[in-house]
Amino acid sequence: QVQLVESGGGLVQAGGSLRLSCAASGRTVGPYTMSWFRQAPGKEREFVAGIIYSRIFSKYAESVKGRFTISRDNAKSTVYLQMNSLKPEDTAGYYCAYSPRPVTEVSITTTSVYSYWGQGTQVTVAS
């Protein structure tokens, strides 16, 4: 079992920044992938950014490219999401996800490859 705990959400004005963290604990063995998804009320959960264990590959949703940066510290089993130039449309619950299986450039964006999820942290961007 793997437990994921997110932190760092909050209320921010448009144009501001937030940094989310997700710490993994438990059986974090192997080259696992960690990603961020988000879900707004009435909408489906959508991929935001993901990074593989070696950190040589990461992927971003088009809507956040150039504004968000994903990074990870494997020694701490923690993944981060630095969010800059936030927009009201970024308002959502943000969820950390963990996949123990190999991923591809396509599958990294799909919820089905992830075995564990965090409880979510709310990000609200005021206009």
What overall form do the CA principal axes indicate?
globular
Order of helices and strands: EEEEEEEEEEE
Spans with pLDDT under 50 lasting ≥5 residues?
A: none
Average pLDDT confidence is 96
Distance between the amino and carboxyl termini? 40 Å
Indicate the radius of gyration in whole angstroms.
Answer: 14 Å
For this entry, what is the oligomeric state of its chains? single chain
Give a quick account of the main beta sheet: strands, pairing sense, barrel closure. 7 strands, mixed
The fraction of residues in strands falls at over 45%
Category from helices, strands and their pairing: mainly beta
Helix content: under 10%
- Tally of individual helices: 0
Structure description:
The protein is an all-beta fold and 127 residues long. It contains no helices and eleven strands. The protein has strands spanning 2-7, 10-13, 18-26, 33-39, 46-51, 58-60, 68-73, 78-83, 92-99, 116-117, 121-126. Strands 2, 4, 5, 6, 9, 10 and 11 form a seven-stranded mixed β-sheet that branches. Strands 1-3-8-7 form a four-stranded antiparallel β-sheet, with no helix packed on it. The protein is globular and about 40 Å long.
Short description:
The protein is mainly beta and 127 residues long.
Write the topology of this structure.
Blueprint: E1 2-7, E2 10-13, E3 18-26, E4 33-39, E5 46-51, E6 58-60, E7 68-73, E8 78-83, E9 92-99, E10 116-117, E11 121-126
Parallel strand pairs: 2-11
Antiparallel strand pairs: 1-3, 3-8, 4-5, 4-9, 5-6, 7-8, 9-10, 9-11
